[in-house]
Design goal:
Elements (H helix, E strand, L loop, with lengths): L5 H4 L12 H12 L6 E5 L6 H13 L12 H7 L6 E5 L6 H11 L9 E6 L6 H12 L5 E7 L7 H4 L3 E4 L5 H15 L2 E2 L1 H10 L4 H15 L2 E2 L1 H8 L4 H12 L3 H13 L4 H20 L8 H10 L5 H15 L8 H16 L36 E4 L7 E4 L25 H10 L2 H11 L2 H4 L6 H7 L2 E6 L3 E6 L2 H13 L3 H8 L4 E6 H16 L24 H8 L9
Parallel strand pairs: 1-4, 1-5, 2-3, 3-4, 6-7, 11-12
Antiparallel strand pairs: 8-9, 10-11
Helix pairs in contact: 2-3, 3-4, 5-6, 8-9, 9-10, 9-11, 12-13, 12-15, 13-17, 14-15, 14-16, 16-17, 18-24
Protein name: DNA polymerase III subunit gamma/tau
Organism: Dubosiella muris
Keywords: Nucleotidyltransferase, Transferase
């Protein structure tokens, strides 16, 4: 006998063998049990999730002569259906029978009574391939079919089925099969076939199948053909050219340690080995996304245990803002692959850009000539600073790219901030302010300033129509002005990430000119999350009652003198508004 592919050999013969889709199966069973059988069903969902298999099982169940055990697979009707010879169960491929003439022939046959079973069941696969004329020809028959006829439509693209057909069917949406369910089924198949496959190999096969049970069996079949009946993780990687999560984790660890040569060698290696670079990029994005989820919910069930281990081991030295920045870079790079002449160059460029923007050079000194030993450094993998600053309450002026500075006590800058002693910018790290510092801002604010500024702040999108301020307005639209001093404003945001983005914008580009145009006077912006602001307000009230408020914060603004040769051409303007976009001129 000729070899039979695993996905055909292990096609489910009853509902118990189907992997996943428990709700759909139970609904169909109850429909038969309570005699509430519809005249038309629409099974839609991703490929390989059991649509056709469940349709065949349901058809056998409807015609089985043993209703207590249907489908029993032992009665004459079940045996004929299993051998694809039952005269009352008709399978039609809509991809090759999609015209009006074929549908008319079907309608002619529908009127005849069943020959062997109770129902005449038409299973029409890939129904979305039918033409509009064919759908319209079938419409009346589906609406009012003979009592003995049942239609089961299966499709991967329900959006291509005309609404008048969908409205006349009971629709069942099939979901992707869970990885753990696929692994469980693959383990059973391997035991039946005498295949020795490691659990990591089966897990990778399940991931590659993208929720399709049929695809996973096909991948297993191909791996068996490649390495006989002993399958390890590396065998699956070689057959399908994929990079594991562990490999990506080691790459990210090299990034955190600034091992540029190791990163480039790894990328060249997977390219020379023929690995799928698009899939590698997508997998890296997915791993970074999972790490962000775990940052906010360490015990989340949305991330599997193996991924949690990789994230814990490889990303402990990369702050959340750095991971988000890298994820954005890779997503932007992925969107450019369609017209890239060499994908590898784009991927290397993304990682190199991340390295150039993300980490400070501790061997250099900043523009204020502060010794490196006096700069407070933090270990992001721990809860406490790795070194205690010896500066105490010393004030350090941090120059701004926009051209003004503000003295911030080192002790008042959150441990999540690393001062870049070379470029003195905060582009890649979270900038947070201690409660005591925010309290000083509130002490220095006045009610009259806040009322005056709030009127314009709340309608800034109407007042400021200049192209230069698009990004500023976009960032500020989800914030609320809560305090205002003579030369600064304090805003609160719903989420800490929004506050981080505003503070990063302030330190790298600044809102000074924007507020000068909006409020009539230049002002520096401070952003805090809502939870922190509410906490500080409670402290303010308690300490005001006990006459223990701190001294108001003194904010200094200093603009750089513009040179006569400075031009504000279109390229400069776009770079200022959209700093991540590079403008190339001939």
């Amino acid at each position: 006998m000729a070899y039979q592919a695993l996905y055909r050999k292990y096609r489910p013969s009853n509902f118990e063998e189907v992997v996943g889709q428990r709700q759909i199966i139970q609904t169909l069973k109850n429909a038969v049990l309570h005699n509430r059988i519809s005249h038309a069903y629409l099974f839609c969902g991703p490929r390989g999730t059991g649509k056709t298999s469940i349709a065949k099982i349901f058809a056998r169940m409807l015609n089985c002569t043993d209703p207590q055990n249907a489908p029993c697979n032992q009665c004459p009707n079940c045996k004929m259906a299993l051998s694809n010879s039952h005269p009352d169960i008709i399978e039609i491929d809509a991809a090759s029978n999609n015209g009006v003439d074929e549908v008319r022939n079907l309608i002619e046959r529908v009127k005849y009574a069943p020959m062997e079973g109770k129902y005449k069941v038409y299973i029409i696969d890939e129904v979305h391939m039918m033409t509009t004329g064919a759908f319209n020809a079938l419409l009346k028959t589906i609406e009012e079919p003979p009592e003995h006829v049942i239609f089961i439509f299966a499709t991967t693209e329900p959006n291509k089925v005309i609404p008048t057909i969908i409205s006349r069917c009971q629709r069942f949406d099939f979901s992707k099969v869970a990885i753990k369910d696929i692994v469980s089924r693959l383990t059973t198949v391997c035991q039946e076939e005498g295949i020795d496959a490691s659990l990591p190999a089966l897990s990778l096969i399940a991931e590659l199948s993208d929720g399709g049970m049929r695809d996973s069996l096909s991948i297993l079949d191909q791996c068996v053909a490649y390495c006989d009946k002993h399958i390890e993780l590396d065998d699956v990687r070689e057959v399908y050219g994929v990079v594991t999560k562990q490999d990506i984790g080691r790459l990210l660890m090299d990034l955190s340690e600034r091992k540029v040569e190791d990163v480039i060698e790894f990328l060249h290696g997977i390219d020379e080995d023929g690995f799928d670079l698009k899939r590698f990029t997508a997998d890296a994005i997915r791993l970074l996304k999972d790490s962000v989820i775990l940052e906010y919910s360490a015990n989340s069930t949305l991330v599997d245990e193996s991924t949690k281990e990789v994230v814990h081991e490889s990303m402990k030295n990369i702050p959340l803002s750095g991971r988000i920045a890298l994820m954005n870079l890779l997503m932007d790079t992925y969107s450019k692959f369609s017209y890239a002449s060499r994908i590898l160059d784009y991927i290397e460029g993304a990682f190199l850009q991340f390295l150039s923007n993300s980490y400070s050079d501790a061997s250099a000194s900043n523009s204020e000539n502060i010794p490196v030993s006096e700069v407070k450094k933090y270990d992001f993998s721990k809860n406490e600073p790795s070194e205690q600053s010896e500066i105490g309450q010393k004030t350090v002026k941090i120059p701004q790219k926009q051209g003004f500075s503000h003295p911030i006590p080192i002790s008042d800058v959150s441990r999540e901030t690393i001062i870049d002693t070379k470029n003195a910018n905060f582009q890649s790290e979270r900038i947070r302010f201690e409660d005591e510092y925010v309290l000083g801002l509130l002490v220095g604010a006045t009610k009259s300033e806040r009322q005056k500024d709030a009127m314009k702040f709340n309608i800034q999108d109407q007042l400021m129509t200049d192209l230069r301020w698009i990004r500023s307005i976009s960032l500020l639209k989800n914030s609320q002005l809560v305090a205002s001093g003579s030369n600064y404003v304090l805003v609160e945001t719903q989420h800490p990430l929004e506050a981080d983005e505003l503070n990063e914008m302030e330190f790298n580009i600044g809102f000074l000119d924007y507020f000068e145009g909006l409020l009539g006077t230049p002002k520096k912006l401070f952003a805090v999350p809502k939870a922190q602001y509410e906490r500080v307000v409670r402290q303010f009230r308690e300490r005001m009652a006990s006459h223990d408020l701190p001294e108001p914060v003194v904010v200094e603004l200093k603009k750089e003198q513009k040179t006569e040769n400075t031009k504000n051409n279109e390229g400069d303007l776009m770079t200022k508004v959209f700093p991540t976009i590079q403008i190339f001129e001939d």
